[in-house]
Amino acid sequence: MPLDPSPIVALAPVIPVLTIERVEDAVPLARALVAGGLKALEVTLRTESGLKAIEAIARDVPDAVVGVGTVTKTWHVASAFDAGARFIVSPGTPGWLAEHLADAPIPVFPGCATVTEAMALSALGFSVLKFFPAEASGGMNWLKSVAAPLAALKFCPTGGIDTKNAAAYLALPNVVAVGGSWVAPKDAVAAGDFARVTALSWEAAALKV
Ligand code: 3PG
């Protein structure tokens, strides 16, 4: 049975989605986000540094709750857990992955983009789903349309969300948090401009769910 993900979404209205190229950026980046009030951090497995970045944040930034994103293979779960990940996010969730994730030792936000996918995940006991890619898959209209038929489910939309639309997403009753990369712009991270990351995080952390 999947674990309850509500303690993770309760940490902040926005979950930064971090794709870390240089492992040495991981700790200052995580500290900058936490300083701005964003504590749940998703580190994707899209780069070679992903697992090492999770390990570094788990070890050196005690106020962060680091999770693993872009989980697309069953072995990612054990590797990320061993590295210190405290939650899991997948971009999409085929049945073989969903069954594996249902037994994960940490909470999971499995990805979905259709009503059928959401129903399959609900049947396995998942309660908060990542809606991805949110803007490309129907955005707020999709979320409003599924609120009645999928009344038991809550969503964390991600993909195309930024300062322009985050507040409107968060105002929807079936949205418990949003995810996005906008709080950690690649150019700011590359330039070591972590003060900008903290400023963006303050703004994001002040949004109301
Ligand atoms: C993700 O994996 O959740 C997305 O790549 C984040 O989408 P964004 O870059 O549009 O915020």
TrEMBL record:
InterPro entries the record matches: Aldlse_KDPG_KHG, Aldolase_TIM, KDPG/KHG_AS_1, KDPG/KHG_AS_2
The enzyme's E.C. designation: 4.1.2.14
Pfam families: Aldolase (PF01081)
The reaction(s) this protein catalyses: 2-dehydro-3-deoxy-6-phospho-D-gluconate = D-glyceraldehyde 3-phosphate + pyruvate
Pathway noted in the entry: Carbohydrate acid metabolism; 2-dehydro-3-deoxy-D-gluconate degradation; D-glyceraldehyde 3-phosphate and pyruvate from 2-dehydro-3-deoxy-D-gluconate: step 2/2
CDD domains with a match to the protein in the record: KDPG_aldolase (cd00452)
Keywords: Carbohydrate metabolism, Lyase, Schiff base
Molecular function terms, GO-annotated: 2-dehydro-3-deoxy-phosphogluconate aldolase activity
Subunit structure: Homotrimer.
Family: Belongs to the KHG/KDPG aldolase family.
Record protein name field: 2-dehydro-3-deoxy-phosphogluconate aldolase
Organism of derivation: Variibacter gotjawalensis
Gene: eda
